[in-house]
Amino acid sequence: MPDLGSYAFHVLASYGATSLVILLVIIWSYLKHERARKTLLSVEEKVNEK
Amino acid sequence: MSFWEYANPVKFLKLSGSLLPYVSILAAITIIAGLSWGFFFTPDDYKQGATVKILYVHVPSAFVAINAWFMMLVASIIWLVRRHHVSALAAKAAAPIGIAMTIIGLVTGALWGQPMWGTWWEWDPKLTSFLILFLFYLGYIILWAAVEDPDTAADLTSVLCIVGSVFAVLSRYATNFWNQGLHQDASLSIDKEEHVADVFYYPLIVVMAGFVLLFVALVLLNTRSEIMKRRAGAIMVRSGI
Questions:
Q1: ipTM for the complex?
Q2: What CA–CA distance (Å, rounded) separates B101 from B92?
């Protein structure tokens, strides 16, 4: 771990905030994709059953 | 094979499905490698000390935030001119990633500004135009959600995107247009004399490549979601489910 001295809070908070926002966007995008995929599959199944 | 063939949703889903795993893995490797290089293996700056390490998250996020808007602009113009639905959906899909990158840029900028300038925020031309770009992203997302008819929403948001491009350009070039404010000149430039020292430059380029790949991966994923959602809706209307 590099010595960040008196700037430790600013540097670590920057990396922490960046990681958090990126992680949230990835999770949100993945969940949205899964929801859309499942909806499309179930709609296609219903149409095929008809 | 023409580029426009990928405006066909089925072909787009097929191509994006096969590209997505590779782009995602490459993005993860590049970001982790670049950030580790920058954080652990580069020296402190002689003026800014350890805060220079914020460069590796601030510059790539601001770069993607501004260029995501330009990507949305191109997609919006394609929609307005050629009426390809995939391009309108790609623009819509890019907006949440763009706003996330803008938030990272604003937060890390404040965290860098406080120890270096003595203030978290300053109404300087570059910072102000970047904040306005954030508001345009917000307006763009709200407009898509507020208008019920998807084609009308795509038309209105495309016009908003063209107007907002002024602030994307200003965010990038404000320090060139106005020789005032606290923000420094661009960290990267085609002119080698202008950009940061090589020891910071190379890891920065790696992280930037990683952020661009992450943006591409997330836009592909979100565009796929939008296409699937719209397709499910169309099937339901057609078959009366």
A1: 0.94
A2: 15
